[in-house]
Amino acid sequence: xxxxxxxxxxxxxxxxxxxxxxxxxxxxxxxxxxxxxxxxxxxxxxxxxxxxxxxxxxxxxxxxxxxxxxxxxxxxxxxxxxxxxxxxxxxxxxxxxxxxxxxxxxxxxxxxxxxxxxxxxxxxxxxxxxxxxxxxxxxxxxxxxxxxxxxxxxxxxxxxxxxxxxxxxxxxxxxxxxxxxxxxxxxxxxxxxxxxxxxxxxxxxxxxxxxxxxxxxxxxxxxxxxxxxxxxxxxxxxxxxxxxxxxxxxxxxxxxxxxxxx
Length: 262
What we know:
Low-confidence stretches: none
Structural class: mainly alpha
Largest sheet: 2 strands, antiparallel
Helix content: over 70%
Distance between the termini: 48 Å
Strand order of the largest sheet: 1-2
Mean pLDDT: 89
Radius of gyration: 22 Å
């Protein structure tokens, strides 16, 4: 596998001796032991470092009387996430705002990364540069994080037995046989639907970012003067929309997981 990004080369040079044995011990040996860290993961790590750095800068410059531009932007994002969570989840939604806001900011930053020269992730098969979220491995990792998060809070809220009962559908008073039959029917449906959310979250984001990169390459090559600007604008809109959806859907899943009646 060819690694073109400078950051990937640096990370592999520094960490290959640690990452490769670790992956091998987990029975996940990399295809190239000298380059176990792929480009999309290197760019995700870059985004993580950038977000942490910006957070530290905002924290060091916090001001009530004279807030800076960066503080205004962060406050608006947090307020927007808080309002969305409160509308969907309701009481106690403040607990989930940090995770939802982090998902939104991280996905948005990853989506927009390919617009920065030399930071797009090369796809040798398609001969294009795309965002880190144009790789299914990256979006699946994000989906797994969201999946574990909302199920954890479902278990925390209801307890193990209560959460399993929650997945069996509403337990109202009535014929006990009908309640048991309904639970037997609903539990596998809910279980499959629950795991299906992994597919929904990961494939939606991956497909949109990959197709966007392909269209930019095709039409940008046909009319290289003005059309690339149009597609860059469209890319920014789609990036924002997909980041919002990736924040919205976990909020809905959290609401369903912690609700008292399914």
